[in-house]
Design a protein that fits this description.
Layout (H helix, E strand, L loop, with lengths): L1 H23 L30 H8 L14 H10 L30 H7 L5 E5 L17 E5 L15 E3 L1
Parallel strand pairs: 1-2
Antiparallel strand pairs: 2-3
């Protein structure tokens, strides 16, 4: 997870540079960031995995930008996500640990003073969607739709049951 998270942060920087150049010529590129937890370097086909087929991810990697030597700035997922989502070193804004699932606590999550990449892209006319694990705060003010995303399908906390009893673990909003 560590290397891949940092890889995604670098990819974001490259995509944003590409975005600025493309905006000058009025062409807006599509931006796709795939962030996975606990994925090893060789867990995808384009990096040598033979036992788990990943043809779609391989195709994206082979037609896009790949970083083969990258590191994250934190060893767990929440702070790594915060760094990627903001483009900033997460300790600078106090996101030095995984947030707890605390829907009534505005301090458990990405500070509202931090701008997300979705908010930045929205200012440039982009529409964005977040899928899967959010883990950047469970208070209503920190929901993905309040942080620049137009759509969200996933779960707010750091983990969830794959077979929820009441269906409340997954969230879908437009």
């Amino acid at each position: 997870m560590n290397k891949l998270s940092y890889l995604m942060a670098l990819l974001f920087c490259c995509v944003m540079t590409s975005h600025v150049l493309a905006q000058q010529s009025m062409i807006k590129p599509n931006v796709i960031i795939i962030l996975t937890d606990d994925q090893g370097y060789a867990d995808v086909g384009f990096n040598g995995c033979r036992d788990i087929p990943t043809p779609n991810i391989d195709r994206i990697a082979n037609n896009g930008v790949r970083f083969s030597r990258a590191y994250v700035t934190y060893s767990v997922c929440g702070p790594s996500r915060a760094g990627i989502m903001t483009g900033r070193y997460q300790d600078r804004f106090g996101f030095g640990r995984n947030p707890l699932l605390a829907p009534n606590d505005t301090m458990q999550g990405l500070p509202l003073t931090e701008q997300t990449m979705a908010e930045m892209l929205q200012q440039s006319g982009y529409t964005s969607m977040a899928l899967g694990k959010w883990h950047l705060g469970a208070h209503k003010s920190q929901y993905p739709l309040k942080r620049g995303f137009n759509e969200f399908f996933g779960f707010l906390e750091g983990g969830h049951s794959y077979f929820p009893q009441d269906g409340s673990s997954m969230m879908s909003r437009k």
